[in-house]
Amino acid sequence: MKQKPRTFAVIGLGTFGSTVATELQRFGNYVIGIDSSEANTARLSDQLSQALILDARDEVALREAGLGDCDVAIIAIGEDLEANVLAAINAKMIGVKVVWAKAISKTHHRILSKIGVDRVIHPEQEVGQHIAQVLHNPYVRDYVGLGNGFHIVNFVVSPALQGKELAALDLSKKFGLRCLGVMRGTEYICGPDGDCVLEADDYLILLGRRTELREFGASL
After folding, report:
1. Greatest CA span in the chain, whole angstroms?
2. What backbone phi and psi angles, to 5 degrees, belong to 160?
3. For the whole model, what pTM was predicted?
4. Residues 166, 189 contacting (CB under 8 angstroms)
5. Is the pLDDT score of 123 beyond 90?
């Protein structure tokens, strides 16, 4: 049975909001884009399920637009703190199941958390940290934070590891890391309990805490 597409409302169609909205649409979801700017909504009118010119501070307007039926609302309004907070409050009040909101400061983050926003995001900060982490170690291809200090990191096999068997690295004992597998190109060639000889440009997918991952990265 084909899964019913989820419905998202993206409030604020600047650079961040429009990127989120168009990507969600590309994934096959039903996306309602909302902005007070006619230019922003017109630019995305052919790319989203709906693009509406609305003031997100107006609870009645959002309710009449059907926002309460959305599965998720993303408040992507940037510099206008009042509009951002009121949009988040309105989304919660009219019954949106899950609300994410962009914050531009620690104080803003605290306010959004206090009003019950399910997740507060700092796009510029998060992207900056991500880029710095990848730039810091040339063997880090990408990583994902899982919370509670744990990350999954995609390491390129360095020259020092080429020709070695995965088991010989003894990652758990030496670094406290768990290997989730090895990728060679687009092929998953070795699981956590398997063994293989590492080649140049293979990728080690490792799970662990930041400190242990850094120690392993420094050893490459």
Report:
1. 65
2. -65, -20
3. 0.72
4. no
5. no
Backbone angles phi, psi at 65, to 5 degrees: -80, -5
pLDDT, tens only, 93-116: 999 999 999 999 999 999 999 999
Distance from C-alpha of 183 to C-alpha of 129, rounded to nearest angstrom: 25
* Amino acid letter for position 28: G
Query: Do the beta carbons of residue 203 and residue 140 sit within 8 Å?
Result: no
**Phi/psi of residue 113, each to 5°?**
-65, -40
| Tokens found for residue 95 | 């019954």
2 — pLDDT class (breaks 50, 70, 90): low
Q: Are 177 and 208 in contact (CB under 8 A)?
A: yes
Most confident of 15-19, 157-161, 166-170: 15-19
Residue 175 has pLDDT above 60, yes or no: yes
Token couple for 20: 């989120």
The DSSP string of 109-152 is HHHHHHTT-SEEE-HHHHHHHHHHHHHH-TTEEEEEEEETTEEE
Specify the residue for token string 């360095």.
158
